[in-house]
Every structure is written in structure tokens, then in C-alpha cells.
Queue: 3 jobs
Job 1
Amino acid sequence: MKINRLSPELKVGIVVLIGFIILFYMSFKISKFGILSEKGYELQVYLENANGIDPKSPVLIAGVEIGRVKKVKLDNFKALVTLIIKEGVQIPSDSTIAIKTQGVLGDKYLEIIPGNDKKILAKGEMIKNVKAAPDFDEMFSEVSTAAKKFGNTIGEFQGLLGDKEKTSIKKSIENIQTITVEFKDIIKENKQSINSMITNADDTLKGLKKIVNDVEAGKGSLGMLVKDDRLYMDAKETMGALKSISKDIEEGKGLLGKLVKDDSLYNDAKDTVKNLKDLTDGIKKGDGTLGKLAKDESLYIETEKAMKKLQKGADGLSEMTPISILGTIFSFIF
Amino acid sequence: MDKDTAIKIVDLYKNFGSQNVLNGINLEIKHGEITVIIGKSGGGKSVLMKHLISLLKPDMGEIWIDGVDITKLKERELNEVRKKFGMLFQEAALFDSMNVIDNVAFPLREHTKLPEKEIIRLAEEKLKNVGLSGFGYKMPSELSGGMKKRVGLARALINDPDIILFDEPTSALDPIISLTILDLIKETQERFKKTYVIISHDILGMFRIAHKVAMLYNGKIIEYGTPENVKKSENEEVKEFLKATGIPGFVGGVL
Amino acid sequence: MINLFSLDRIYHPATSVLRQLGGMALMFFSSIFYAFRRPWKLNYIFKQMEFIGVKSLGVVLITGTFTGMVLAIQTYYGFRKFGAEGLVGATVALSMTRELGPVLTSLMVTGRAGSAIAAELGTMRVTEQIDALIVMALNPIKYLVTPRVIASFFMLPVLTIISDFVGIVGGWLVGVKLLGINEGAFINKMIKYVDLEDIYDGLIKSACFGIILSVVACYKGFYTAGGAEGVGRSTTESVVIASVSILVADYILTSLMF
Ligand SMILES: Nc1ncnc2c1ncn2[C@@H]1O[C@H](COP(=O)(O)OP(=O)(O)OP(=O)(O)O)[C@@H](O)[C@H]1O
Ligand SMILES: [Mg+2]
């Protein structure tokens, strides 16, 4: 009777064995690719806002996973994040770390942008350079306040502009139009000279390149400046000063502050518009001068400078403090 | 307590809700005797028997077994007492999950360290005694009611307990097998001189093998004595009960 | 002040629930207590492991596979709207290991083995087989409840890991072979998003569910009254109570774990 039947022990044993095999297989599959099971070393970084960064959030360099977040804890009102980096991945000590977002799920991860330093971060060391991540909520609120302020300023301008000013602005625009047409003619007339201007610009660029190379190599005074710590300190000080200035402005202190808050702004603006009109009139008169200007190398450099300023302004937008937006707006107007 | 007394019941009361089943039972059962309890159906005989082995707890009263009041014992101490008992249930109560031979061998397997071969040999011998040799590997569900009863009997006898309780050992059996079982009970009792308590409606058969007969009526023992004495009892209820059997030689029976 | 003794005699649904809860807790603790006392009934445990574990294998395989397949289809059509079909594998694997593997396995075992336990013990009660054990000086908890609780505790995780696996395989079949999801994305995202803890937590949960279903079934069966009808009632109640308890416990355990 009992001969042809498997004993319960054997049957249970077989099933349990299958279970264990599956468990080991799945565990192996997962942990084989898991970072935490591999050998690695720890690094630390302070983040202003570790929102979305959890243990096991990936750490990437150039899109390749090289580690994971081990733990996140609060330290002195900052988030102290401990990373585990794969053994064998060397990270220059001047590398920058940034929080980034990925995929439809909006997963956050940490991206390390390697620096150039020869010194390599050792176990337990701190990544000092953190690229401030734009906090979207904050950014949007700042942009909206800035836009509001901008709107107010425009409104103020509108109120400021009487009929007389309006006609003059209209005139100015018309003038500019004619200038453009004339400018076209000028370009036509001076085709050759413009060509040579471009060649000159090319040379200038080459020179610039050389300068940059020199700077990089630490040659020349500029190079020294870049490598010099003092410059950094100075810059830092300047930044501090700037910060306090912008704060003052907001509080209505100082000349600029007064300008922002003061009625006299309107008057000045009025004058400016008038000056603008005068200027365009002048430009209109000085036909030859513009042609001359176009040929001049210094114009090119000036233009480039202006462009750079503009770019800085745009960069500044991403820094996004209301004051700096206001500043940017003013720098456009004036 | 008397040295001869195996079981002594003192003022035992048991109610199920508002129903008084046991109403002050007083009874002494002697060592080495067959005591048969009779009484009408639903009168509380099975309930009384379950009290003897503490399957049911009395509302009041004492049950002394070998000088210990088992109503005061804890479960672990009770188990020591229970090891002296064997019991045949009214419905046999075989374990459905085991075949016949495992059912019979079960008490030996659990309480002795006998080798498996010996256990099987003893179980098969007991099965042969109850006329069921060859049925060892059937499952209880494949047996008739009477066969189950006999397997239950074999199981109750297998480890030669000091006190054996039989709840209607011969009910559901044909007259011939009934006689075989009666002979088996008598024979084993005479051989080992153990204490047997038997509930039965088989008045004729039981009066042949009993040393003492007790009659349960209205929750009390109204008559107790040798079969001869009980046959001649003057008690009205006993008379009426025995008359109903219609057996010659019994009080009120046909002459 | 409420007299607890009079409270015990009030047969109100609330006190009855309390009594049953207490009874089940007591039954669990005594079954554990007897598990550590000699003699160990290893053959009883193996028999129950066979009954609860091995014999539930078929139903667990089928439910696991089809759950994984359905999950793959459902999530595929949802994720396709975002162009995130690659996440189907991860979703199937996470759902199976964390939730559906343990819960569905336990519910299936409750339906198959839990009901059988309640019916078997109930029948043993009404046919006095439990009394027969007691008469033989054997503890019915140790003989009947302990092996079943231990067997469920160990076999549920085994069944669950098998269910997890066949569920993932089912999801893979539907997702990769039928719906044409990129296999690399399917597998890699799965490996990326599923952690060892997901699997282990699921197994721990299923072990707890195993205890719940076996204790409820044993309790209901053990205290059956009222003949064959009572057995039927116990069986139904044990399945209902065990299933509900498993779902409630799942919520509690999940909120504790994750
Ligand atoms: N567990 C119980 N719960 C409630 N009432 C019970 C219980 N057991 C027995 N009774 C009641 O006790 C009474 C006696 O029952 P018992 O089984 O002792 O009768 P009996 O004398 O053995 O009858 P029979 O000869 O038919 O076996 C019956 O009326 C029955 O209804
Ligand atoms: Mg009876």
C-alpha cells in the first residue's frame, strides 16, 4: 500500500528546495547588479535641500551609475548625505555634485561632474562643490513676483508717458527704422570692409583663444589671477558686498534703493527718454560716423562685452532673487 | 477511602443550561470488578462517564480515583491520571486520518517505547481478538458502525489500562458478534483483573458478565448491587425498567 | 466599574468578538509553547506541510502565473500612454513580491487548506476524536494545532516565493513575448527597482499570514459545536475571518515595513 507513494517528508523537501532555489536565484539576480552588495567607499556631501534623495538613490557620472546614496540625515539644518561609491571609481576632489531629475516618474538622482584636480577624494571625505539645484517651487514663485514687479514698473512707465512722450517715442522708433534701412545701405556699400572686419574678428578670436590657453596654463597675469586664491577671496567678498547692496536696495537704502523707491525715478526716466530721442536724432545726422564705427575693431569687442553682459543677465535669471531680476530689468532699460 | 475502591463519586452535580443531568451522584466502584451502569436513553450515563475521565467538569462534587480528587487537578496532573484509563466512546471516535492499525497502535506509539514491529504485532493481535484481522489497512470511513465500535474496543484495550470505560460496547452489533465481544471483555477482565465500567442497554448480556450493576435515574444512582440483587430490586423505577426488557427471570419479566 | 466576570457571561457580539480574539491568541501562544516541548511530532509537522504546502502548489502556481500575466497587460496599457512600457517588468515584480504574491497565496491557501483544517478539526470535535486524544492523555493543541501552525508558518513563504517567481515569469511571457516590450528594459528595470527587502518583506508577511490563517482555522474547528451543521458553519467562518484578518494584517504589516 505504502510502497508506491512518496513520503510527505520527501515531497515537502522537494517543494522547499524549489522555493530556496528560486529565492537564491532572485536574490542573486538582484544583488549581482546592486551596488550595496559590492565593495565600495563612502563619501559625504552637504545639501541645502535633499528633497527626493533617498537611500539607494543612484549616483551617476556621465550617466553611468557609480554608486548609491547610503543614508540621508539632518546635520545642522543641512542634509548630510552619505554616498557609497564603487571601488575603483576615482573622483577628483574638486568635483561638483548636483541633484538631477530623471524619467517620467521624476526620480531624483545625484550627478557628479568630475573636476580636474589631480587629488582624488578618499574614503569618508566631503564633496565640497554643490551645484545649487533650482527648486522649482521657489523658482516659480520668484519668477511670478518678479513678473509682477516688472508689470508694475511698466505700468509706472505707462503712467509716466504723456501724449507728448508717446509721440516722441513713436518718432524714435520711426527713426530707428530709418536707421536700419540706412544701415542696410551702408552694409551694401561697405561689403568689402565688412569682410575684412570678419577676418579681423577671426584674428581676434584666435588671439583670445591663445589668451585662454595661456590662462589655463597659468601664464601671464590673468592666468595667475585665475589660479590665485586671493582672487577667489576677493570675488567672494565682492559677492558678499553685492548681496548686502541688493538687500539694501530692497530696503530702500542707498542711492539705488532710493531710485527704486523714489518718485524722482519717473523724472529721470522722463529725461532718459528725451535723451534717447536726442541720441537717435544725432545718429541720424552722423551717417559717416556709423560706417566708421562699423569698421572699428573696438566696436566688436564692445559688442562682445555687451553680449556677455546679456548672457550673465540670463544666467542671473536662473539665480533668481527678485532683486537681481529687477536689476536685470533696469540694466535692460538703462 | 477504601483500599478496594477504584472510583468514588461524591455528590456530583452537572447542569447543561437549565437541564439538570446529574443530580447528586454517589457511587463507589471497586477494583477489579465489572460495573455496569444502566439507565434510560438520554439519562446522563455518557455524561457521568465523561466526568470520570475529566472530559467534563462537574458543577459540584468530587471524583476520587486511587485516592486523588481529580476535580481539583490541573491538566498536567490529570494527564498522569488519564494514563491509567482506557475508553471506548459511544461513537467509537476513531481518528479519521489514520487507518485501522494505526488507530489501534496509537496509544502504544504515543506512550511506550516499544519497537515498531512489536507495536504492529500487538495491534494485529487485538484486531484479531475483536474479529477484524485483515482490516488493518482500511480507513475508518470504510468501516461499518459495528466494525468501528470493535476497532475502538481494540484501541481501548491495547495498552492494558487499569480502568477501562466502555460506552455501549455491544450496541450496533449483531447477536453473534455481540456475544464474542462480551466473551472478550469477560475473558480479558478475568485475565488481568482490571476495573471495567460499562454503559449498556444490553441488559441480558451485561447481567451475565457484571460483578455490580448501577441504575441511573433522574440524575441519581437509585440502585447499586450484584446483578442478582438488582434483579430482585423492590425499587419501582428499577422494576419498570427491567420489566421492559421482557426477559424471563427479571423482575416483572415474563416467567 | 465593569465587573469582568459578568462581562464574560454577556453574549453580546462585541464580547463574543473579544472572546474569540482572546481565544485565538491563547491558542497561538499555547501552540508555540507546545512546539518547544518534547516529544517533537516531526512526522505530524511534515504531514501538515505536505497538506498545506505541497497540495496547495497547483492552485498557487495557477493564480500566481495569471496574476503576473494580468498585471503585465494592465500596466502595459497604462504605461504605454507615458511611453514607459519598460517599467512593466518592475511593476509586475514589485507588485508580486511585495503584495500579490504573499496576499493571494495566503488567500488561496486559506480557501483550500484553511477551510479543510477547520472542517477536519470540527469533525474531530463533533465525533469526539479530540476527546479521545484527551482521554489518551495527549494534548490536542500539541497534536492538532501546533503542527498546522508550524507547517503554515514555514510553507507559506515557500509557496509565496514560488508564486512571486511564476508571476514574474507570467508577466514576462505576456509583456515580452506577447506585447513586445523590450526585454532588456523589462529585465533591467525590474532588477533596478526590486530590492532584496521587497522579496524578504513579502516572505515575512506571508509567514505572518500563515500563522493567521492556521490559528483562525484551528480555533474555529477546535471549538466547533453543533454536529455536521456546526462543522459547516466553522468552516465558512474560518475562511471569512482568516481572509479579512489577512487583509487587515497586510495593511498593518505593510505600513510598518515600508
Ligand atoms: N455537551 C452537551 N451540551 C448540552 N447538553 C448535553 C451535552 N451532553 C449531553 N447533554 C445532555 O445531557 C443529557 C444526557 O446525555 P447522555 O449522552 O449522558 O445520555 P445517555 O444516558 O448517554 O443516553 P444514551 O443511552 O442514549 O447514550 C442529554 O439530555 C443531553 O441532551
Ligand atoms: Mg450515551
Job 2
Amino acid sequence: MTSKRMTFGQATLDAMEFAMLEDQNVIAIGEDISWGGNFGQFRGLVEKFGSTRIIDMPISEALIVSAALGAAVTGLKVVASMSFVEFTLGAMDEIVNQASKFRYMFGGQVSVPIVIRASDGIRGSSGPQHSSSLENLFCHIPGLKVVAPSNANDAKGLLRTAIRDPDPVIYLEHKRITGVRSDVEDGDFSIPLGVARIARQGSSVSVITYSDMVNNALAAAQELEKYDIDVEVIDLRSLVPLDYACIEESALRTRNVVVAHESWKFCGFGSEIVAHLAEKFGGNLNIRLARVGAKSAPIPFSPILESQVVPGVAELVQSIGKILGIELPTIRGV
Amino acid sequence: MTQLAIPLEDIGREYALAHLRMMVKIRAFETRVGVLFLDGQLPGFIHSCAGQEAIAVGVCSSLLLTDFVTSTHRGHGHSIAKGISLNSIFAELFGKVTGACRGRGGSMHVADFSIGMLGANGIVGGGYGIAVGAALSCKYRKTSDVVVCFFGDGALNKGTFHESLNFAGLHKLPVIFVCENNGYAQFTDMRRTTANENIASRAETYGMHGDTLDGNDLLEVIGAMRIAIVRARSGLGPTLLDMKSYRFSGHYVGDAEVYRSKSEVDLMKQKDPIERFKVKLFDSGWLDLATFDALQSQVDHEIGLAEEFARDSEFPLPSDALRDVFSEDILHDI
Ligand SMILES: Cc1ncc(C[n+]2csc(CCOP(=O)(O)OP(=O)(O)O)c2C)c(N)n1
Ligand SMILES: [Mg+2]
């Protein structure tokens, strides 16, 4: 199997191209996408597929989602680009009250093949309205699938699957890794939703995470090798559906679980996993559980403030040390 | 105003009687459903469209089976006029498994995608974008289908109105926006909420044609629709139609109606669209009392059969509550 190094963004372009070549009924709509979109993930598509398939939309977020829905239930498959994830909030009515409920409330009459692509996370001083991670808003809603890849290869394989999927999929692409290169398999392939990836095998502690936080977890794992701590990193890749089996297997093996994400810890996705493990194995099995997430404040602009709110490698290391009962020095600069 | 109305002779006797019959059927359905609801036999709540039948019937009779409509919370008439089976809508209102949506949607969510009925909608203004997306899909797939978006005067001040009409006008999409203007949104009359009462004048802003018409005059509704449909099918773009009407029942069945006077209601009932059309048919000699009585009793019989079907049908299995959330069974493992 041959591969190429490319950015996360380029990898999604690959997936878009395969999807659009495979199926005439795939279209993409969104603001500025014929110019490549805010992060270049649509670059070149309009030249290949034309402006009837790569459609620039007005700054009308509610329309972007509802039009995607209307087109999807009449025969198309629509990729709706929302640019920053905060902008999906202008379409939350359409996502929560319409798209997520159509199949169910109409008695299974209809599929809703739409992919809502949104860029989330911290890139560095993007300020309170351009730095959020909002996955738990979507995970909370029955009827939405939620995907958050951590690397270019998964980005390609998961987007390919998401576009084929008959249900609405929220596809979250972290801004800091959109331009980061890694190895991507050549050719057309897809990765199923709901299958986690063991990004690093370990025996001391399981870090269960997704999106860019996977990369922090891998960095923390490397740092902790110095102290003979063998960290396992589970990259969930998809949050709905969720790979419960993988999570449980790892938790039972290491008995120490740290769930980590960039979004707020309070009522965050990590709480769900911790609660699940506690309910299922709590008490008799003696699994220690911890969460790492952002502190409850909007994400501030000034770099020194930003790093106060959002956890990075240092917080992960501290949390792992704490759960294992090992005193570790504070890491700086990451 | 009146130049939109077509002469009765234009539609011929048989077709005219079919229209009458459809209006009478919707009235009989709403009347019976209202009785059952007040008697505690139907769960939820009911928004009756009695008094507005000429709009549903005149609009939908102008459409083909392959054309689409999006509907509202006051949508029974739209569904019936578009061709849903009475059994299927009646059973839905009873919450039975044989209902259009297997009992999951109820009165406000009746849909039948097989006849292009893309759903009644419990969210005011929820249909605009869906209709625009369906129209985009018709244009992309190069069909000659058109989409009708029904909405109430209360939906005129939703942001989605602007987002959707702007885009529809810009791309000259085959969509017709039909405002069922009954003068009230719940308990509030339009003058208290709407800066510009000349609704059709909004069309110009969006580069489309707008007309105001008497929505209780079936022949005017048909006339306006003929022009709008030709415009839509030939790629000349959307139309905004302000159809003035009045709802005979309260906002919902059982509404105490403290916000409007009995004399106003009595006055408006003088403009009953069914009675007015009947008078035209009597005058033309196409209808006599005996023929009407026969038609009425046929309709009543039909409604009775549908009610019987609904009553005799099974309720959904309890396990149905968790079906069709997704295309496959994804249940959270909790
Ligand atoms: C977004 C939203 N806001 C409020 C409501 C509550 N509501 C239901 S119907 C209605 C009035 C709608 O008036 P109109 O659009 O004129 O329709 P009509 O009932 O007159 O047919 C309101 C406010 C709702 N369903 N959805
Ligand atoms: Mg109204």
C-alpha cells in the first residue's frame, strides 16, 4: 500500500473528489467554497466540478443547512460547509429540529444524506467566537452522527464514509491540524464510523480522546516514557456512533482512564465516557477515572490567557501522574 | 386583484366538481377531527385549516404528483390536497402504526414523500429553506418539477424568510412561496408585528414576482398558480403569493379566541371559500342541490371509513420508539 504525505485539508479534498466522481448527485454548498473555503479544504473543486456542484452560498447559515436538507430528501447528497463551527449555531434550529429528526418523525420514510463540515478548536488567538469545540452540542442530539478525525489519513477515510452515509453527519475538522501533514493512503478508501483506533498501545493508563487532542496525548505519552509510564492512546475518531467495546477493553486492561478533549470539561463529552465506565464497571472493578478539558470560560484571545483555559500536553501529563499517584515535574512550553 | 381569477368555464365541470369535492373533504376531515379531539379521543393538539381550503386545493391541484410541497403546523389540507390517503393521515392523528409516519409525527408532522409532500412542520418558518433546497435539487437534476412552500403570515418575520427568498431569487429557482395569510399568528394580529403589510411588495427585494390575492376565491388561487408555475417551470424564477384568508376555528381546536370578536368571525365566515365556489357552480348550472348532497354524503362516508381504519389499526410496538433514529440501529450503550 503506497501513501503520500499531505495535509489534513488536502486529504479531505481527495475524499471530496472521489465522492463527486463516484456519484453525480453529490454537491457541496457553503460560503466562499469556490475560492477554496476559509481553510483551503475546497480548493480546486470548482475547476473540476463546476459551479453547479460547488455552490457559493450567501452568509445565510440557516439556509445552508435547510437547503442541504431539502436537496438531500429529494435525491442529492450534500456536503454543507459551515466554515467555523460557531457559525453552525445560526443553523441549530435546522440541524436539531429538522435534519436530525426527519427520518424519525416521518416514520423512516426518508434518508438525510448530508455532511455538515465545520472547523473547530484552537488555532492560536482566534478569540472567543472562533476557537470553540462544540461537539457535545451535537452528540447530545439523537439522529446526528459526529466525527472528529485527528490526522490526514482518517480525515480522508472518514469523510468518504460520511458522504456515503444516509444520515446527517457532523464532520469536525480541527483548525490547528488542517494544515498539518501526515501519511495518507493513495487511492480510494473509506473508514467506517464507530471504529476507534489505538493510536499508541500502552499498559499503564488509557487516554481516550479525539481530534487534535490525540496529538497532545501522543506527545504526553512520549514525555512519560522517561518515567516508565506506558500510555495507551485511543483515538475515538467518531463520537456517534461510539466504539464502546474499544473503550471498555482498554479501560479493563489498564485500569486507569483519562478522557481528554479541548472542549469544556463541564458537561463535556468526556463526562459521558467516564459516566459510562463508572456505571458499567464502577465499584467492584477498581478503575480510576479522570477527565481533562477546558475550564469553563470562553476561549480568550491573549496567548497567555488562552493557555490558561485550554488544556495541552502539560495538563495531560499532570492528570496521568495524578491518576497513577506519581509526582511528575510540570512540563512547560507545550 | 381580480384579473388573476380564471373564468369558471376554463376548468370545465368535472374538474370544478373535483375541486369542490376536495374542499368539502378537507372541511369534513377538519370538522370530524375537531370533534374527536374535543372528545378526548385524539392525543396532542390540532390546528384546523377550516376556512382556508381554497388555498390548499387551488395550489395543489395546479401541481403534478412529482412536484413538491413543504407544509406547516396547519397542514392537514395541504397533505390531503396533495394526495395523501385519508387512512394514512387519520391513522397518524390517532398515533397508529399505519399512520403516514408510523405514529411518530402526529398532526404537525404529517409527511408523504411518495407524493412529494415533504412534511408539515412544527417550526414556524421551518419550510422555507427546505423548499429552496428541494428547488435547487430540481434545478440541478434538470427535472421540470416545482416546489411550493406554504407558510403563514406569522412566519413572515422569521430570518429564514430573508435567507431563503434571497437565494431563490438569485438562482431563479423553481419555487413558489405561498403565504396563507389568515391575519393572525396564534393570538396576535399581523398589524402588531409586521412593519410592511404589503407582503407581495417584498418580492421585489428578492428579484422575484409578487402578487396579492383573495385566497378564498378558488379561481383566483388557480389563476395565480398557473402563472407562477409556468414561470417556475420555464426557469424564470420564483413567485411570492400573498393569499388572504381567515381561519374559522381558533389557533388550535379548543382555543378560547379571546383575541378576536365573534362579530369579526361571523363576518369572515360570510366569505367561506366553499360556499362562494358552490354559488358559482349553482349559478353556472353545473351543480344542483341533489348533486351537492350526494357529494357531501360520499365525502362523509369516505371520512367515516378512514376513521374506522384508523381506529381498527394497531398502535406501534413499544420497541418502535427507538427505531429509525438512524438508518441503522445505533443505540447508546447506556
Ligand atoms: C419557531 C417557532 N416559534 C413559535 C412557534 C409557536 N407557534 C406555533 S403556530 C404559531 C403562529 C403561526 O402563525 P402563522 O404562521 O400565521 O400560521 P397560522 O397558525 O396562522 O396558520 C406560533 C407562534 C413555533 N411553532 N415555532
Ligand atoms: Mg396566520
Job 3
Amino acid sequence: MAFSALMAIQVTHSWCWAAAFWYWNKFAVRVLYRILTDAMYKAQRFSTDWHVNSFAGATVRKITRGMWSFDMFEDTIFMGFFPSAIIGIGMVVMLIIQVPIVGWFALPVVVTFVAVSIFLAVKIARPKFQKSAEQDTLVGATLADIMTAISTVKSFAGERREDAHFGGVAGEWRKRAEDAWLTMVVIDFLRTHIRIALMTGMLLLVIWLWYKGEATPGDVTLSITAFFIIGGYLRDIGRQTTELMKAASEISDVVGFWMREDDILDAPDAVPLKIAMGQKGAAITFDQVGFRYKQGDRPIYQSLSVDIKAGEKVALVGASGSGKSTFVKLIQRLYDIQSGEIRIDGLNIATVTQESLRQAIALVPQDPVLFHRSLAENIAYGKPDTTIDQVRGAAREAYAAEFIEGLSLGYQTLVGERGVKLSGGERQRVAIARALLADCPILILDEATSSLDSVSEYYIQKALERLMEGRTTITIAHRLATIQKADRILVFDRGAIVEQGTHTELLANPDSIYRRLYDIQALDLVH
Amino acid sequence: MIDTTYIPKATRGDIKRFAFHYWSGDGMWRGVVAFALLGISVGVDIFILYFPAGWWIESVNLTHRPMAVCMLS
Ligand SMILES: Nc1ncnc2c1ncn2[C@@H]1O[C@H](COP(=O)(O)OP(=O)(O)O)[C@@H](O)[C@H]1O
């Protein structure tokens, strides 16, 4: 009878156990999925400034490590702590009922042990694991940094230097990890001894009771069994506390992501940007703009004012570091300005939604970065719901169709990470096609400072002319052809627009800064 | 001025808030069910298996006791 009851209990037990894990795993995977997608959501929306100042590799590592640590965190609580606690408490309660003296002795023993374990884990293990996690982030970041710049490393035969650099970072991690892990061993060692001492004490107590005749052999057997069970779970609890602290110190980065507010926020009453109808492009106004980078030591602009008419083609020139790129970054509101206003068609860009603002602006960067996706997807990026015919049309207009159709997979060709499989000129034309499809009223061009072969150059010029039609265009100009055709040139010098006019007008003045920059070839012009 | 690269340092309270944020929500019942089931199965272990064990062992003839203890563990 007792035997079949035992078997029935065993079976029930295993059913419950299996079902518990079934649901738990479903629950846990879902939680991890949410953490992962939320962290990505957050990280993508952090400001450009944040991304400029954070290693991409570190961000990747923080997110993935945080996710797995959270898994460990909840597993420890669910599969470790929770059952251990029930059993620990249950056994003690049982002892108190059955063999009160032993039970009342066991209670403080268990409590002391748990308290000591938690104390050791929180005060000693946790800070060490935190340090090791920080260094682990740096290891990931350094690795990513080297891999991203691998072409530079190779061209300067810098492998040994990078080995040494990375070796230093990894060595520090080794030191810290060793410290943390060895601490764990020592803590475990200490805990084991405490546990053995406590258990021995309890055992001696029971034997003594039995000897005095105050405990029956049944009590003794029960107590001994209970001791072994309690002892086993105490050992587990000890380990779990350390694990928990390790996990907690590793998830703190992701928790930080979760807590952090974005620094460029839409105003609560932000409206979508409205571009006036019946005109080409959009008007842009800088009204006494004052700006400095948070990391910069001095303001870039004190009070910058300029009016750009709808459809105007403006070229920005000036020595390197004079504030041209900052100008276009501010139009996109990648940074918030400290004073003044930037308006597009009369609307302050700080009062419109960032999404609508960025959708109004197409950007063709110097060195376009392509996704590791097909060419068609890359071109359609600016306007996702396009048909393949529209993609082809845009490619044709950008003079990109020819080389794309020459590829064996055509528009389905995957372009490598950062588009390395295409030449610079080809990537530019893909970017132009992308901008053509996006069809934005404002176009920002950052011209490359290096010249391409004359055939590519010719096609890119043609493609750009096509792209500039009917849009307000702001070009950070390095092509003589571009500045000659510009409606207006803005000459930047140390964060101020010092001169403006057409190429001929500016050159005509022998005392102009433009003339001087032009003569000493400070404009990095490509002829 | 706010440092834009700043990621707030998470305290233990923040980690707790974070955990509860992700544990709650529409999939929460699964976690609760899992906890309940695990609780039951562990409870079965002690309160049914070990709890009466003391009495049971008491009632078993002395010579059979070692066997009973073995079965229990
Ligand atoms: N993210 C940044 N943080 C701090 N300073 C920056 C940042 N970006 C650019 N600067 C500084 O701002 C100044 C103007 O830069 P920029 O607008 O890029 O010049 P240009 O495009 O004319 O070469 C430079 O001195 C540069 O060092």
C-alpha cells in the first residue's frame, strides 16, 4: 500500500515538474525576446551623439550579454532559489513538529547560513563580477573596433600593434575574471566549512539526545535524512546566491539602457513637418543659431543666420573643421541647438516629429554604407513600399543600372557588410538611386574628397544633376564642377559664414577669403 | 549639461524594477502557472514524501528501518 502510494506520488511529482518547465520555458523565452527587441528599439533611437561616442561592439555585447544574464538570473530564482527555499523551510518546519529540539536548532542554523551566503555574495563577489563585466564589454568593443578598421590595420601592417593592444585589454579582463572566479571558489570553500560545522553540530545534538534517551531511533533517522537534504539545498543556495550576483552585475548595462531617456526627444505636441505645396524643394532658415558639441570645448556656432530658398542649390565650402558637416547635421536635427531656431518652410524643426523631418531629407554621404542585404533592398531603403520596377527606374536614372544588371544576380546581389564588394563609385550610385527613390524635398550631398576614375566621375555627375532637379540641395562641395554650378556658395570659416555668392562673383574679388582658399587649394577641390 | 553618452548605473532596486517589468505583462500567466506547478511538485516531495516519513519509519519494524530510509531518500 505504502509502496504504491509512493509510486503514485512520484508520478504526480514528475508530471507537475515537466509541466512546470514547459510553461516556464515558454515564459522565459518570451521575456528574453522582449528584452532583446526593447534594447534594440532603445539603442536605435539613442541620439547620434550617443552612437558617435559608444563603440558599436560594446553596444552589441551589452545587449546580448544582458539578455543571457537575465536568463541565468531568472533561472536561478525559479529553478534554484524557489525550490530550495520551499524545501529548506519545509524540512525545518517538519523537524520542528517532529523533533522540536532539533528543529529549533536547525532554524537559526539555516537562517545564519543563508544570511552569510548573501552577505558574501553581495559584498565580496558582486563588485568583482561587476568589474569583470565592464572589462568584458571593453574586450568586445576593442575587437569590433579592430575588425571594423581591419583594412587600415592591414595597410599599415599594424597586426602586431593591434595584437599588443588587444592583448593588454584581454589581459586586464583575464586579471579581473580570475579575481572574480577565484573569489567564488574561496567563498564556496568558506561556505562549505560553515555548512559542515553547522551540520556536525546538529548531528551531535541528535546523537546526544538519542543517547540520553530523549529521541527515538525514528527521530534520529528522520533528522539525519533531513540534515542531508537540508545540507544539499544549503549548498545549492550558496552557489545560487553567487550566480545571482554574477548575473545581476552583468544585466546592469541592459537595465541602464532600459532606464535611459533619449536625449533628442519629440516635443509632446510635435506635428509632422509640412512642406509647402507648389514649390520645388523646401526653404531652410538658420536664425541666430548657437551650437556646441557636448564633448567640444568651445561653441561651433555663436550666432549663425542664413536663408536658403526653396529649390536653391547651395554649396558649402571652407577649410576642414570650419563647421560644414555640423551645418547639415543640425538640419537633420541629429543634435539639438542651444540657442536660435532652425526652420524648414517656416516650421521650427524642434517642434516637428523627428521621423517626418528625416523623411523630408535625403542624404548621399561621402562613403555610403550599405546594408548586408540585396541591392534592391538597399535601393528601396528610402521608400520601402516600392516595386522592383521603380527600383530599376531609379537605378537607371542614377546610372547604376548598367553595372547592376551586369552582375549575375542583378538586383538580388547581396552587397557585403558595408558594401565592400562594390567600388566606391558604384556604392555612390546606389546611394544616389536610393535618394532618388526616397524623393525628398531636401537633399544633402557630402561629396567625396578623392577623385574617381573619369568615367565614374562623369556618371556620378550626371546622376547627381538628375537627383538635384527640383530639390533644395545642400552640398559639402569638393568638386569644382559642383561649385561652379551652385546658385550660391557659403564660405565657412571657424563656425561662421564669412562670404556668399557664386563662384564667379567670389573669385572676382581679389581680397575674398574664397579666393585665397581657392588659390592655396585649401578647399580640397577635385578638378 | 547632460552627458549624452551616459548610461545610468543600475542599482539593485532598478534591476528589481526591470525584472518585474519584464515578468509582468500578457504572458505572465505562464510564469505564474510554472511557479505554482513547481511549488506543488516540490511540496509533494516534502509534505507527502518526507513529512509522514517520520511516523512511517516509527511504525516500521526496527529491522526494516534501514530499507525504509533507503526508499525515502
Ligand atoms: N561629435 C563631435 N563632438 C565634438 N566635436 C565635434 C564633433 N563633430 C565635429 N566636432 C568638431 O566640430 C568642428 C567642426 O566640425 P565639422 O562641422 O565636421 O567641420 P567640417 O565639416 O567643416 O570639416 C571641428 O573642430 C570638429 O572637431
